[in-house]
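ok trying this again, last paste got cut off
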Amino acid sequence: MVVHNNIGKILAVLSRLYPDARTELVFRNNFELLIAVMLSAQCTDRQVNKITAKLFKKYHNPDDIAVLTPDELAQDIRECGLYRNKSKNIVNTCRMLVERYGSEIPADMDELLSLPGVGRKSASVVLIVAFGKPAMPVDTHVFRLARRLGLSRGKTPEAVEKDLLAIIPPDQLGHVHHWIIYHGRRVCSARKPRCKECALQNLCPSRQPQDGFRSED
């Protein structure tokens, strides 16, 4: 774990830059959030929102999807990457929700991970967004920025998650997750980070003032 002396300053800057940061997925309840998160793997939030705008007009709860075959659901999400595999996982997840959880979304990490197609990142998103529980979903943006900012040297999402959970106050985890994603999308991109425009440049160990950006990825 990297203990960053500037962690407080970094969080203060991010909170000022993105005070309204939140998930960009559109949903009305925990069921819709879970399905949207499952669809979002290797797919942009904008594209997911286009798909779910139609999808949730047809299917309103796990019971509606549980009676479908994967091929039937696939026709509704075919504009999403990996749609055949996702349709299979979503149908099986909805069947499990109906059979085991009374069509409710569980608020427990292990129970969420037992659902087909739900990995640790997706489960963490559901925990912090739907239930306000302390969790740190590590997507590509969080993984990249945590390492660049010196918050973690972890080489896996799990290692980065562990480091962030150790240094970020539990009541700020949900906010920090979204602040980092916003900054990763708008400024600190994977290939061409806009270091000269970055409000964190003086706090970033990966930023070399004279030589430009030094990637740690």
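PB: full thing came through this time. The radius of gyration is 19 Å.
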